[in-house]
Specification:
Layout: H1 2-35, H2 40-67, H3 71-79, H4 82-96
């Protein structure tokens, strides 16, 4: 019984690290695409909105995957929107304050 708990915790942690890395790469991709085409005030709210929508969908999907026992994928999905939301908020704070 203890082995399955360690396995699920390890899988969740590995998935979360992968999700955070993938979220960062997606944010960099979105940043590089819109940075050439618009000012920060124009694109940052859109990227934030997309990131928040992704976060809500990821929370629902991650809860479903966790209930099914797919801990690696649930960790990945929960970690995916973390950095895009935080980094976009940081860019908005830097631009407006």
């Amino acid at each position: 019984m203890k082995t399955s708990q360690t396995s699920s915790a390890t899988g969740t942690m590995m998935g979360a690290i992968g999700g955070i890395g993938a979220g960062y790469m997606l944010w960099l991709l979105a940043f590089s695409i819109v940075d050439d085409n618009a000012a920060v005030g124009d694109w940052a709210p859109t990227v934030l909105l997309v990131s928040v929508v992704l976060g809500v969908c990821a929370a629902l999907w991650g809860a479903l995957l966790r209930r099914r026992g797919k801990y690696l994928w649930s960790g990945f999905v929960f970690g995916l929107p973390m950095l895009p939301v935080v980094l976009t908020l940081a860019v908005l704070a830097s631009a407006y304050f």
